[in-house]
Amino acid sequence: MLERYTNNPIITADPNNKLYSKKVYNCTAIKYQAKYFMFLRGVGDDWISRIFLATSLDGLSFTINQEPVIAPEHDWEQRGCEDPRITFLNERFWLTYTAYDGTTARAAMASSNNLYDWEKHNLLFPELQYPQRENLPTDWSKAAAIFPEKINNHYFLLFGDNHIWSATSSNILDWQSNPTPVISARKGFFDAAYVEMGPAPIKTDKGWLILYHGVDQFSDKRTYRLGAALLSLDNPFDIIWRCTKPILEPSEPYEISGLSDLIPGGYATLRSLSDNDITDMSEKNILPKSVFCCGVIEANNSLRLYYAAADTRICTATVDLQTVFQS
User: Facing residues of 168 across strands?
Assistant: First the structure.
């Protein structure tokens, strides 16, 4: 349903930079003062994730800063800072990301007044007590995305990679989660196994547009596709529309073959594979497939999506809102 940029991918890993020599993916983006700011996840020689800033004047050709803006400092993020989402709110930029300690993934947040210098805050849900998914710790909390304005005098966010849950705050820093999911998996659809939150919600005249990831099955051959839903402007717990078909799914070679995080064994397996191994596994259809979007910029009733292809490289595509609502 989207129009892919003809020169995809727009950003790839740099073998000459040891901090993002393996993979660049799962980025967020914002346009500010006529300039595009992208925050991307980079994985380097040590297989630890860090968040880097890339900038552009046209939204297509980006220059990546050589040093990360968000890197592991605390015990709870010692194995990586992953998958950012950005929101501009109260004249400040808020960047949520996944802090990974090697066992548990937890939602964390940083803020900035200039997009270059970031102050880290606490974990968003340090005492979460309901399970995200079977065999995961109860305080597992990925994929947090903050609404760009207050609703009914509260701040809202959505998070989760099993169900999509909600949380509210009176000050943006301290969050109370709601144990009732807003969006869950649906049998018989592209999101039959589980769902995961995408970029920050987008306000439209029809409602809050939510982009999310839908996974079809719990298996090594799972596929991540991108779906959409509308939530009520006054009540973001209320779904008023949800797509029946994905708006983006892996189909291009650069979206199918790559260093997929979902491969059995994860990074330990990826370290042992050559480029030829990856290509061979892709051709035999035994690799998980994924497109993964954490970043979208809306302008003139059109969306520009920035998404990860095969957990390896960054691409972009555009679509008008009316097309999204017909999915």
Answer: 156, 176
